[in-house]
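Attaching the record inline, Q. Sequence:
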Amino acid sequence: MSGVQSELFSPPPPLTSPAACSPVRHEENKYFIKVNNKVFVTVATAAAAAVKAVVVVVVVVVVVVVVVVVLAVVVVEIVLLIVIVVVEEED
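Structure, as predicted:
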């Protein structure tokens, strides 16, 4: 029982330790929560990932729509040129 108590009431590491002062460690703490040696993603990181996913989907949809419109315009122009040539040959 005394081993459990000493583990529960052990003092935290000093704030001047290199891990506490490291800017990389501070950045990790903004985005991750460590509980019982398991890392959990915070809500901010999940929201950022969701925003990135939405932006990627919107960009892909816009690119696909632009490509389809350009191809449709090219096909219509080719068909019109063929029709014009055929009509002029009939005259």
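The CA atoms of residues 12 and 59 lie 48 Å apart. Strands lie at 32-35, 38-41.

More tomorrow.
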